[in-house]
UniProtKB/TrEMBL annotation:
The keyword Transferase applies. This is Caffeoyl-CoA O-methyltransferase. It comes from the Bacteria. It comes from Fodinibius salinus. Coiled coil: none annotated. Keywords: Methyltransferase, S-adenosyl-L-methionine, Transferase. GO terms for biological process: methylation. PROSITE patterns: SAM_OMT_I (PS51682). Gene3D superfamilies: Vaccinia Virus protein VP39 (3.40.50.150).
Amino acid sequence: MDFDKVGTYAAEHTTADSELVKELIAASKEDLEHTDMLSGRQVGQLLTMLIKISGAKRVLEVGTFTGYSALKMAEALPKDGQLFTCEYNKRYEDIARTFFEKSDEGSKISLLMGKALKTIPTINGSFDFVFLDADKINYPKYYDMIIPRLKEGGVMVIDNVLWDGEALQPEGEKAEAIDQLNKQITADELVEQVMLTVRDGVTIVRKK
Ligand SMILES: C[S@@+](CC[C@H](N)C(=O)[O-])C[C@H]1O[C@@H](n2cnc3c(N)ncnc32)[C@H](O)[C@@H]1O
């Protein structure tokens, strides 16, 4: 099976992004040399579905990039929903803020600039839903920091858990950190989880 073709076919048969989200993707591609950090339609729509199905209201995202997944999640949240998203790169911030301001759902989003390990503790309260998609090397630290603040029944989605297959036989620091987190989740009796082979690997964790 040709996995690139399968991925394209799956994306084509997944609900399309809103016009504004499509505009954000186009603007990101125009302004930046590389946009492969965008999580893409399958992951974006998975987040949308999980937020709607779970009725989540308070969301934390670690890793905004240009705002694709944040905007997808804000569009899925109810009117009184809140989304906190963490980023440290000014160039990405400018694009994200432009589109958050353009969106009718943008008022739900608070963008926190700075290293996420420092900014997450400044947010009060607990979370119904978390999307972890920033620096892979700190994945285990983010998990330890966030899981106590995830409500019972709350969901954490973690992207890139396969790291292009390198997590299976990790050699570099990033692959090792991802594999460490994958093992940690598997051993964690406080949660149940499923690792999906969607795109670069996505784990859905539910706190019992
Ligand atoms: C994979 S991208 C996020 C993609 C985004 N979730 C989306 O779907 O479009 C990861 C982002 O995390 C940011 N990042 C990396 N390390 C960070 C840190 N320590 N604190 C805050 N942001 C960080 C990067 O600048 C990058 O924009």
